[in-house]
Amino acid sequence: MRKIRTLVVDDEPLARRRITGLLEKHPYIQLVGECKNGKDAVKKINTYQPDLVFLDIQMPDLNGIEVIKATDSAPLPFIIFVTAYDNYALEAFNVHAVDYLLKPFDNNRFEEALEHARKQIGIKEKALLHEKMLYLIHEHQTMDESGPQTLTIKKRGRTVHVPIDDINWVEADGNYLHLHLEGEKYLLRQTMQGFYDGLRSRDFLRIHRSLLINSRYLNNVRYLGNNRYLFQMRNGTELHSGRSFRSAIEEYLTERDLIDRL
Q: Are residues 122 and 196 in the same domain?
């Protein structure tokens, strides 16, 4: 397994120093940064997209729960919450924390949490690789490479062949995707990343970790400020972009000469 890119977030310097010291003992850990407040944590998570974050919950600006909710990173990193208060435990696991370290913790408890995170990251990487392989095999078996790309979907007991070019926009919902067409919607068991990696069409633009649009059906784009865009589709649907996608959006719109056309 590749090295685990790790970020440490705590407003107390001694707490950060202890965690980074414990992490240095493990050659499979790559420390990508430290943060002393929640706002900096959001910025670094969006920028560096770490695999694992040790995240303090009680911080003066944004607490750990608020940091996760404000993050646009796709996919979200695994989180080990670190706090002196146990009243956040339930909410921490509601935002998919992989573990919860209650201060003061000993070295054995830290190693237990780190090993658990390492195993979960390994399982996720194997699952994504397997999913991607199955998707590519399916595409090879069901599509003519010289013709239009299509999806084979089961709906109400019947098989439907959905042309990729007919999809207006895609919304992720856990391990499922909602495919929105003109007057029709289909549900596909697939992650957004796996679906996006398998696309051959250059008409699709990812604007959020859970949103993908087909620029053929784009009516208007408006910059809202704070690194966010509003995309209006031809049917009137309005979709908001994630802050961390601004650069990719602007590069795509400029490259496709869409800014002047919309």
A: no
Rounded-to-integer distance, Cα 262 and Cα 254, Å: 12
Which residue in 213, 256, 244, 228 sits closest to 76, CA to CA? 244
Q: Torsions phi, psi of 45, nearest 5?
A: -65, -45
Q: What is the mean pLDDT of residues 212-219?
A: 93
DSSP state of 74: S
Q: What is the dihedral of CA 143, 130, 44, 4, to 10 degrees?
A: -150
- Each residue of 234-243: pLDDT tens digit? 999 999 999 9
How far apart CA 214 and CA 234 sit, in angstroms, is: 11
Q: What are phi and psi of 151, to 5 degrees?
A: -115, 140
In the chain, which residue ranges form alpha helices assigned H by DSSP? 13-23, 38-48, 64-70, 89-94, 107-142, 192-197, 246-255
Q: Which residue has the tokens 């992720």?
A: 172
pTM over 0.70: no
Q: Are residues 229 and 207 in contact, defined by beta-carbon separation less than 8 angstroms?
A: yes
Q: What is the pLDDT of residues 14-23, one digit of tens each?
A: 999 999 999 9
User: Can you give the CATH number for the domain in which 8 is found?
Assistant: 3.40.50.2300
Whether 145 is covered by a domain: the verdict is no
227, with CB counted inside 10 A (0-12, 13-18, 19+), is middle
The reply to whether 139 falls in a domain is: no
